[in-house]
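Supplementary Methods S3. Complex input for the D-glutamic acid-bound model.
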Amino acid sequence: MDNRPIGVLDSGMGGLTAVRELLRVMPGEDIVYFGDTGRVPYGTRSPEIVVQYAVQDINFLLRHGVKMVIAACGTVTTTLPETLTEGFRFPYTGVLHPTVRAAAAATRNGKIGVIATATTIRTGAYERELKKLNPELQVISRACPLFVPLVENGYVERENPVTRLVAEDYLRPLREAGCDTLILGCTHYPVIAGIIGDVMGPGTVLIDSGKAAADYARQLLEERDLLAGGEKPGSAAFYVSDDPLQFSQNAALFLGERFRGTVEKVEITEYPDTIE
Ligand code: DGL
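Predicted complex, serialized as structure tokens:
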């Protein structure tokens, strides 16, 4: 048993898709969330910059005494080198491995679409890991760089004409290829899952990378006997690198009544860019 909090990071509010699931599957856990709202988006930046930012974010969480780190960000997950993450002295998961396992289990026709940020798609990580699980899978990948700014700016309601138009353009090749499973490889995308699902049609299963990571985090903590004890509901503390009010409004919209806890601004650039 371990009552220390779980640390979750993302470039902005996308990681709240993982928090939503963590609250569901582990309601007794405390959560410390860092959203790098002052430096979002990560998904258009070079790998060197993403690694530097992600390491600062992880150091921030470690100084808050977390027992594990979840990179609830597709871009961070696919960009941090395994040589680094394998050396972590704390339990760590990103979204990649849990998500590809869920997608490979869900597909019936073997055609899997992957949508994510440009940086993530450039790494080829989703395709590589899916093919490791099953070399027969056909994988069609597409970067959707406008989705993150649309979500961060609140263009998320199901009938939003701007987001619909963008989604139709991005998703057309995936629909035409007949993908029966679509990986939402960026944790911002489940926020507009309604629109994505409408455009893809009812025959496509959407795989939420935030949910897959939260489910896997539970398994990892259980295996290592690190789940929190006691009956009381967990608390959540949110930290951001830009305006806390803006984040609170977006988070409340997104998590609804499950959004409780404080939001504070931090100077993330003051944290070291090598793991402490
Ligand atoms: N939510 C993140 C991801 O999963 C980051 C998006 C971004 O900052 O570009 O990739």
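The CA atoms of residues 70 and 88 lie 12 Å apart. The pocket of D-glutamic acid is lined by residues 10-12, 14, 40-43, 73-75, 117, 120, 148, 186-188 (CB under 6 Å).
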